[in-house]
Amino acid sequence: MRVTEGGVELEVPGEQTEGIEEAVFYNPRQELNRDLTIATLRAYREREDRAETYLDAMTASGVRGVRAAADGWDVTCCDVDEEAVSLARDNLERNDCEGRVEHRNVNALMHEEPFDVIDLDPYGTPMPFADAAFANCRDLVCVTATDTAPMCGAHFNSGVRSYSAIPRNTDYHAEMGVRTLMSALARSAARFDVGVEPLLTHATSHYVRTYLELTHKATAADAAIDELGHLYHCEDCLYREADPGLIADPLERCPHCDGNRVLAAGPVWLGPVQDSSFIGAVRDEIPYTFDTAPEARELCDTLAAELDTPTHYDQHKLCRNWGLPANAMDEFLADLREAGHAASRAHYGGTTFKTDATVGEIRAATEGNLD
Ligand SMILES: C[S@@+](CC[C@H](N)C(=O)[O-])C[C@H]1O[C@@H](n2cnc3c(N)ncnc32)[C@H](O)[C@@H]1O
Ligand SMILES: [Zn+2]
């Protein structure tokens, strides 16, 4: 089957191809992820012109590598699967792109050779590849994780195993996933005296994607570890609290409703997951020729405006909990701001928002107009 994406043409296995799962080799639902990857690579190279080499670590059809090569990157594609390797070679050739294709376990390749940018896009958790990537990447590690149920605490044991943390299933589950993933990545990088700084992070349709700029200094690794901490969350009233530091001091009772159903999660990443000025630059690198341009640009706008608080709320879930009807989001957010709180929409869903107000303060600021 022939597909066109971002100006390149690719042969990908069609539904009928035996032995190959089409969605795995070429997943059209990840086009937004790939469009944003290309825009991010462009914005990054604008800022750091020394960045030249890009490793598409799990290449499958070769789509990321081909798109990066067409953009002038010095590309290496890698896959353990023989059919993927030959597909990636053909697709590079089809687009007159130069690029090396390696048939091997990418962990071995990463340990042998440094790259400026490494893109991890495995099935499920990226953690088995994180150490090799952070040990050997110079500038930027891009990571996709599709195991949202483990990361957000819905598949608890699997989440604990993959991320060496306690994730908890809350009403902000996608953000729990983001912060569990970021925490494990920061700890993996720190082992190699590498500090991570997230430039752009989004949780979209069952995956999380993050772009981490690296600083090869022990003090930068310490600074990243300082962003870790725990979240305490009341299952009854949805009160939540962030507690910086690696030693947890869980709440026995909820300070808001005095209930005893308080969950503790962590260590999670409590720091910022976006760099809004960089996201502005990424947005400007999304041409309208990209199929997902309207959606990708809107996502960038929301991400750039999103507050840095470590959890978000869902207005509908809060209102349901209070037994009150929800009103329009803009009115709701305006009430919060009028009461002196910071408030923004969040990219996790149409009714999600961020604020520095506590759950009690949110209710006090908004309930007058919830009728
Ligand atoms: C989700 S697919 C990649 C999709 C692709 N990056 C895209 O954007 O369409 C995951 C790929 O990782 C490959 N893979 C799994 N383990 C690997 C390893 N240890 N080294 C290299 N490739 C691996 C699989 O063969 C598969 O092709
Ligand atoms: Zn409570």
From TrEMBL:
Enzyme class: transferase
CDD domains the record matches: AdoMet_MTases
GO terms assigned for molecular function: metal ion binding; tRNA (guanine(26)-N2)-dimethyltransferase activity; tRNA binding
Catalytic activity field: guanosine(26) in tRNA + 2 S-adenosyl-L-methionine = N(2)-dimethylguanosine(26) in tRNA + 2 S-adenosyl-L-homocysteine + 2 H(+)
One Gene Ontology term from the biological process aspect of the record: tRNA N2-guanine methylation
InterPro entries listed in its UniProt record: SAM-dependent_MTases_sf, Trm1, TRM1_arc_bac, tRNA_met_Trm1_C
Keywords from the named record: Metal-binding, Methyltransferase, RNA-binding, S-adenosyl-L-methionine, Transferase, tRNA processing, tRNA-binding, Zinc
Transmembrane regions listed in the UniProt entry: none
Domain of life: Archaea
SUPFAM superfamilies: S-adenosyl-L-methionine-dependent methyltransferases (SSF53335)
E.C. code: 2.1.1.216
Family: Belongs to the class I-like SAM-binding methyltransferase superfamily. Trm1 family.
UniProt xrefs under HAMAP family: tRNA_dimethyltr_TRM1
Chain's role: Dimethylates a single guanine residue at position 26 of a number of tRNAs using S-adenosyl-L-methionine as donor of the methyl groups.
Name used for this protein in its record: tRNA (guanine(26)-N(2))-dimethyltransferase
Taxonomic source organism: Natrinema pellirubrum (strain DSM 15624 / CIP 106293 / JCM 10476 / NCIMB 786 / 157)
Taxonomic placement: Archaea, Methanobacteriati, Methanobacteriota, Stenosarchaea group, Halobacteria
Gene giving rise to this polypeptide: trm1
